[in-house]
Design goal:
single chain; 413 residues; alpha/beta; Rossmann fold; 3 domains; six-stranded mixed beta sheet; 13 strands; binds pyridoxal-5'-phosphate
Length: 413
């Protein structure tokens, strides 16, 4: 099949302005921004009537299977600013054996581990870096639990932007190494991700770095939004009943929720929405606490700990956006223990040959817990997000050896 080429076709763009997610105040497009004047995340707004006229489902179906196929709903204006490493559409994988064991008829995993740098952070950072390139930004900095830093380093190096990256000292070894190898200057810091974020904030003031922390610039959400666009297209413009999303800063959950609103506005889907389920680790569950307390903002979760490092985010600046999407969709927030996460990774790997990352394992554990307590029905079509390849994480050691100098007892092997 010959595709229309997503990366070279000239095209009209539709961004009109940016909007403060809290106050609604307008900010100009086409200049670099961090937070809004009210200190909240900025959302990109489009001329959706214009998009509706310019884009049909049929035209979309002829485009190459990468995230640039949704270009009318993306912020990059000039094709030459696109900094791509091949952001492929990710597949929906069934877990038929485990589903049968659970009595579920409708379980799918969206496998984001296939993206460049091995995680879905690539979706957000390819957009943020392409926009930074368009704005002529020369030096970007971020705090990271690993995967975001790796994606930033990769895309920034690809277009000659300098990067300085800070991660908590117990960040998985492979993340720190890949960040360095992909051209960033990376430091381990004896604190958590929000402590690292404070260093970036200070460096922004003192050294002029561009701060690309989660939700502190407007374009990572736009990249992550493509998960929602892809899901809708993969479900033939109907949405699943429930989405289990491992929630750290919440960019993906907020982005998908935004995507669904935009798709409805351009007439591609109706008003039906999936239930958005924010999955967190019991050792770091600020959203679960705030959801259960019925409040709009989530205070810092002290002494945060979990093996699922991607969701070890004690405080999120987009807390109110996460909680609104969860509540407006009739979803919920749920915490799972580290033991349940490790067991889930093991169960899916042995049972289905699918090596999930711990955060992905958390969604499977949450799905099982929700089936058991009745918050999810067996026939509700559920999508779990596996956000990174399981190969990026420390794996359990294997001690079994075979001595060539001894006779092999084949019956015992
Ligand atoms: C960053 C990350 C998450 C959390 O994603 P957010 O959209 O920032 O909440 C989950 N899993 C993995 C593997 C991650 O790297």
């Amino acid at each position: 099949m010959l595709y229309d080429d997503n990366l070279t076709t000239e095209r009209p763009t539709f961004v009109t302005h940016l909007e403060c997610a809290y106050t609604g105040e307008r900010h100009a497009a086409d200049e670099a921004h961090n937070l809004s004047r009210a200190g909240k995340p900025l959302l990109v707004r489009y001329d959706l009537a214009g998009v509706a006229k310019a884009l049909t489902k049929e035209a979309l179906a002829r485009r190459a299977p990468d995230l640039w196929r949704y270009r009318e709903l993306l912020p990059v204006r000039r094709v030459q600013d696109i900094v791509s490493l091949g952001e492929t559409v990710t597949p929906l994988i069934e877990l038929p054996r485990l589903a049968a064991r659970l009595g579920s008829t409708a379980l799918l995993v969206k496998d984001e581990g296939r993206l460049p740098t091995g995680s879905f952070k690539a979706r957000g950072l390819v957009m943020a870096v392409s926009m930074a390139k368009a704005f002529g930004i020369k030096h970007m900095a971020m705090p990271t639990n690993g995967n975001a830093g790796a994606a930033l380093a990769a895309y920034a190096s690809r277009c000659g932007i300098k990067t300085t990256i800070f991660c908590p000292e117990d960040t998985p070894e492979v993340n720190v190494s890949e960040i360095a190898l992909q051209g960033a200057t990376v430091y381990r810091v004896n604190g958590l991700i929000d402590d690292c974020g404070k260093i970036v904030g200070a460096g922004k003031e003192k050294a002029g770095w561009f701060d690309v922390s989660t939700l502190k610039e407007p374009y990572r959400i736009e990249g992550k939004k493509t998960m929602g666009l892809e899901l809708a297209e993969q479900f033939n413009w109907e949405l699943p009943d429930a989405i289990f999303y491992p929630t750290g800063g919440g960019t993906g959950l907020i982005g998908m929720w935004k995507a669904f609103a935009e798709l409805e506005a351009i007439g591609f889907i109706g008003p039906k929405r999936p239930r958005m389920i924010a999955v967190q680790a019991a050792g770091c569950a600020p959203m679960v606490r705030a959801f259960e307390a019925g409040v709009e903002h989530a205070p810092r979760f002290e002494n945060a700990y979990t093996v699922a490092s991607g969701i070890r985010v004690p405080q999120a600046i987009g807390d109110f956006l996460i909680l609104r999407a969860v509540r407006d969709s009739n979803g919920f927030a749920i915490a799972v223990t580290d033991e349940a996460i490790i067991e889930a990774v093991d169960e899916v790997a042995r049972g289905e040959g699918f090596l999930m990352c711990p955060e992905g394992g958390a969604t499977y554990a949450a799905y099982k817990q929700s089936l058991a307590d009745g918050r999810i029905g067996r026939h509700e079509r559920a999508v779990l997000f596996n956000c990174a390849t399981g190969l990026k994480y420390p794996l359990p050691p294997v001690h079994r050896t075979l001595d060539l100098n001894k006779e092999i007892d084949f019956a015992s092997l």
